[in-house]
Please model this.
Amino acid sequence: MSYAYLFKYIIIGDTGVGKSCLLLQFTDKRFQPVHDLTIGVEFGARMITIDNKQIKLQIWDTAGQEAFRSITRSYYRGAAGALLVYDITRRETFNHLTTWLEDARQHSNSSMVIMLIGNKCDLDSRREVKKEEGEAFAREHGLIFMETSAKTAANVEEAFINTAREIYEKIQEGVFDINNEANGIKIGPQLSPTNPNLGSGGQSSSSGGSGCC
Amino acid sequence: MDFHSSTHNSSFCSLDNALENVGQDLVYDPNTKQLCLRNVSNTSNHLGKTIIKDLNSPDSNHSRKQSDGDSGYGECFSQKSVISVENRLDGFPITNEDVDDLNLSPISSPDKCDGRFGKPRLFIQNVIGRLTTSTDPYHNNYKQSNNSKIVSNPVTTPDSIIGNNALNLGRRPPNLPPKTEEEERRHHAEFVEIVKQAKKRELKEKAKLKNRSNSNKFQQEEVISESIRSWTNDILPSWPLSNSSRRTRELWWNGIPSPIRSKVWSLAIGNDLNITDELFRICVERSNERIWTKQFVCRRSSNPCPTKKNDPSSRHRRIASGPISNNHKSDNQPVSTLTKKLSNVSITKDNECAKYYSDCEEEDDEDKDETVSYLIQLDVSRTFPQLGLFQKTGPYHQSLSDVLAAYAVYRPDLGYCQGMSFLAAMLLLNLESPTTAFTAFANLLNNELLLCFYRLDQERMSIVYSYYERQLQCLMPRLAEHFRTIGLTVDLFIVDQMYTIFSRSLPLECVCRVWDLFLRDGNEFIFRASLAILVMYEDILLQLEFVRVAQFLARLPDDMNVDRYFNTIASIKLVPPQLSIVLETKQQNQQHQHSKVKCPESNTSSLVKKLFNLH
Model:
């Protein structure tokens, strides 16, 4: 299936916060209570529709362990959106947000849209981070914020789609230079039928080919 | 009994006859919408049971009564029920359970009985009478079901019921005269013969199949036992000399038989680090001590409301840690420091907890230990989750945690890094004990290639990537071009392969054989095994786009042809120069540049000297 745009996303955050589960819920609409751990990076893709336009999301799900940050840093390149995830039942994952944010800002392009996600909101009885704290952090750093549950699927669709909507609006406003692939956006065959393959990106580029997901 | 005596000797009885005989016992059954015969048993056991006879059944005329004083109950069968009796041709005794299956049904409740006993019995009664001795369960069934239809059969014995019905399921239409006894007997005999022949044929075919699979199995078993004999008698006793012989290498290539694997892996990995059982025990002990004390610190510091969740058992455990720590004077984390920290925590206000935590993080590497222990606990459960062996309740949970935690104590410079749990799990699954697994694990990780990944040595990692890219370009230029087009760089899939030595991406049965040969041939084999995957699936990969290629390579098909895969590996020749030479050159250059700079981690530098490349 052809698409109008391809957005590259990257999911970041401490290990065990549920990054892979969020991705699985979004792409496969299922939840795995015991998920494999992620080593390096794993991928997912899904087509969504915004403003009657088909948009393909190419999602990079990264390893959360701090030791892997030197590897995952290279994955920011060419990402149009980032989901920064913490676990509402583990305060330390919230405390580490600042370093994640620094990393993200430093290694991505400045217009990358960042969505802050407080995951595992189904475990309200074990909550260690209040929703207000997440909101305050997001406000302070100019992020979009949502609490989600990969288990119950609450807000999962919304988190991915709202990020895409934000990116789409930025494109409309002209903030994103869509001709520069380093911004993580690729024009698909729908919008540029004569030029489906805009050539290859360099290492870790965001190009996703013209095939369907 | 009247009914039976009246029909006993007649081979044919008209409907009128029957009606005369049954007299006022004829009732209308609203369920079947048919006229039925009603009768009630006369024994106390069978009180209230109603016997119904379907007068529409032409075969009822052939009723034969076999003396059966006990079975004073009526039987209501559907055709299906009778067939279910026939199915018992296998000669197994029919039990009450079988009878229960026959859908015996009541028509009228006990209070409606007219007190007449010993009224007409049905032919099938013969069967039931013999099938059952106890009637009580029967009664229940009788009362529960409302659906009743009587089937009567022209029988003299249960066997003949079976035979006739099977031969002539629909029975003769009502307008035709029923079969004569002789005919019935003949049909029965024919049927028995048919069944006998069919069974014979079936058995013959089964035996043939069994023979064939047995001979295959036998051959395979022969090969395996021959291989085991060779390993145990010839190769293992003279290990260091024998392991490079051609015969050994050939045997090795075919995969090490699983009973021998433990021994061969341990020998192949060796123990250059001289790790002893005692060392493992101490490391585990120390890790336990450090881990749970740190967990206490962490719980307190990361909890916004520490007073609410104050766990007295944790305090108790903390106090208990005293003597253990004192026993290990070398422990760089004396109890006094900890106690001081803990008392700090207890007076810390909620909003200062986080600050304390981050202060702690900067203060020293103690927090790193906590993170390590937490990570290990988190990841052990996420290791081969499909096997269910390493999860909290699984048999290997504790041993995997021990091996990883002990390693983090043994090599604090490496600590715990994601991916290690898969290597340790593979060793635990294939080696004898946690101790041998730990020894093998520590020595395995001393491998040049694995170390460069586990230390996240970016420079060396990029050398590995370019080495791989060169191989890919030479072997499969089309695929290399495709990868460039879709923007897939090799690091995106080989990171996982290197960290876990394929244990996540390949089907599990295949992984062990890959490990066998990795331990025989060393790092070179990892590259050949990885490239062979691309060669084998080149045609598929050329059709796929970025995400699909990455997903495909991360989880290879479960049904992959293992023999074909190993033949492909055998066909792959790596392009020189060897990776070890490339890395060595790089290292020499670095050493030359920093010849005067002393390595800050003395512990690491001494261990680095011991690095070895397997074979």
